[in-house]
Amino acid sequence: MKIPPFPFIALAILFITSHSGRMKQIFIVEDHESIREGVAAYLELSGYTVSKFALIQEAKSALTHTVPDLLVQDVMMPDGDGFAFVKQLRGSHEFPVIFVTARGSESDRIMGFELGCDDYIVKPFSPKELVLRVDAIIRRSCQEKEKKESKESIWTLEGSSLRVDENMHVLLLDEREIDLTAAEWRIFTHLIHNAGSVVSRSQVLETCFQYSFESYDRIVDTHVKNIRAKLGESGLRWIETVRGYGYRFSGKGC
Fold first, then answer.
1. Is the torsion defined by CA of 90, 78, 135, 10 positive or negative?
2. Cα–Cα distance measured from residue 51 to residue 67, given in angstroms and rounded to the nearest whole number
3. 27, 51 contact by CB (below 8 A)
4. What is the per-residue pLDDT across 195-221, written as a single tens digit (0 to 9) for each?
5. Cβ partners under 8 Å of residue 140, min gap 6
6. Residue 176: pLDDT above 90?
7. What is the DSSP letter of 74?
């Protein structure tokens, strides 16, 4: 892995920082030093501030005083399981997560997305590709945060009501707050923007994740399953499955 010399890195970081404001903070939790250092170098070249951790416990300690803009997390760590760590984080943090792991089975991928990750990359991988995926997720996250107009809407269905505030990222079902991960929120708001219309899985992938691969269809199904579960017994009615095509949000706007 050939890394550009330090002076070039410094100039690149200076240029990017001056044009984009605060440098985004990335946490890398990876026990393999060569991978950790190589990925960090590429991310720093792209203008990110990077904190590197060889153990999950080190990352936990850092989170007590610093909240990153994105976490790159290995799964098989010497002091714990990356899946379990992210599951624990989801109780108090919503920042995007990318799993980077040698565990590439479909069941592992599905588990990762069920935990609310924004991407899942299997080793070996290209550091350049990882940086591009980080860029896409950070860019999307920033666009969501920079929305200045309050987008609040109310939807009804069979005596129940959903109040959605897209600016504040608040979802209330009959006044009960529903917590969605960043990925779930993107899918849910995309569905309500197309309320009454059928939205295909490929449209969700391209709009919400910038993917267009059929093999990722299960990712959409997994996220929709999680959203429905959080909506409770009425989840299947709010989000209908159109067999062989995709999904339709059935709420009626007020």
1. positive
2. 11
3. yes
4. 999 999 888 988 887 665 555 678 889
5. 186, 210
6. yes
7. -
Residue 144 pLDDT level (bands cut at 50, 70, 90): low
Tokens, residue 216: 């990722």
d(C-alpha 157, C-alpha 143), whole Å: 30
Q: How far apart are CA 35 and CA 124, in angstroms?
A: 10
Task: Please name the residue that has the structure tokens 């890394």.
Answer: 3
Q: What percent of the chain has pLDDT over 70?
A: 85
Question: How many CB atoms are closer than 10 A to CB 29?
Answer: 26
C-alpha span between 189 and 242 (Å, rounded): 18
User: How many other CB atoms are found less than 10 A from the CB of residue 192?
Assistant: 19
Give the largest CA-CA distance in the chain: 63
Between the two ends of the chain, the Cα-to-Cα distance in Å is 56
Closest by CA position to 223, among listed 83, 112, 91: 112
pLDDT in tens, 5-49: 444 444 444 444 433 446 899 999 999 999 999 999 999 999 999
Measured CA to CA, the distance from residue 111 to residue 86 in angstroms comes to 11
Amino acid at 34: S
